[in-house]
Amino acid sequence: MSQSGETATSRKYGRAGDTQQAIASIVRGLPKGTHLTAPEVFEKAKAMGLDISLSTVYRTLNRLKAVGNVITVSGERGLRYETAEEGPEHDHLICLGCGLTIEFVDELIRGFGKTVAQRKGYEHKSSRFDILGYCRDCNAKDEAHRFEEAFRSLSVALAKLEEASGLIRQTLESARSGKQLKAIRSGEASVEQIKATLAECQAALALISRNTTHHSVG
After folding, report:
1. CA dihedral in degrees (156, 159, 165, 167; nearest 10)?
2. Domain span at residue 97?
3. In terms of pTM, does the model score above 0.85?
């Protein structure tokens, strides 16, 4: 966008009402299933030439939510915003790894929300569920990372076991030579190395077990 275009856009959305309209248009213009954080909305606003601050974007989004123009989706990466469109209510699957958010409609879940509301003495108006987990891609990356960590732990365990074997040989040689004090010291050191080896092996087995459990469930 040219400098003159940016200036014109900035003047157009200079007032609070115009700014709110502009932010609302950004959220309404998102492809279906797209959910943006406030900083992401801010970046889009800046790209349009709006002369506003991030705090203004937050305040504007909060006002739009209050009047029902946008709704929020929760996740570990913070609130994400989407337009409040007409149509069937939907729920969300949110990846805790990459933030991928998938919309879906399931009447079983909808009925569950109504049942819970009635049990608690509430008049059910609407319900929405945000299901948190890890998408297929993040699961695959996490699995590969766990295997790498397991291999690292086993390699460290092997190195420590070899070191412990050397200390045990020293203990035997010192004991045969009548060097009891030296034998005790090397023997104690070998015990510590063996304990460390066991800890590394347990860590590796835990990681491998998580992978095995994941595949069994899948």
Report:
1. -90
2. 88-133
3. no
